[in-house]
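re the bet — no i am not wrong, look at it urself. input seq straight from the record:
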Amino acid sequence: MKIDGGDLMDLDRLEISSCNWLSVLPASSLKKARVLCITDSRIKELPESIEAMEKIEELSLRCKSLMTLPDWFPCRKNLKTFEVDCESITLIINKIFSLRSIESLSLCCADEELPAAMAETSVENLKSFNLRCKNLRALPSGTDHLRTSNF
């Protein structure tokens, strides 16, 4: 399914919910968008078209099938808030913690443990860190630098 972007030029926020077959977003027409929320979708990776959304500040992905984030993802300079709800964050955690401008991070997953790499990274601007992992047994050792964040 494709969304025609002709009438979306001035949108500040786009919320997409329960669009199981959505594969392409008209990101070139969404250059002004600051907020993108994708919920109840079967996407396994972000559509490459999102890379053109240069002003995006808030990204919410509630997609249980999400498996990967694109290579350009850590380069998002304006991204302040990122929320991801997927089955496993193991494969994407390094890219998430490479976001230098991120201030608010919310992770929801079914993992039993988080990668040790999480403890080795530091996100300078992180003010809020919400972690909801129903099967989590322990935080990786060395996560002391996250102590000022909200769990």
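see?? The beta strands are 13-17, 35-39, 58-62, 81-85, 104-109, 128-133. told u. also Residues 147-151 have pLDDT under 50 and may be disordered. so pay up
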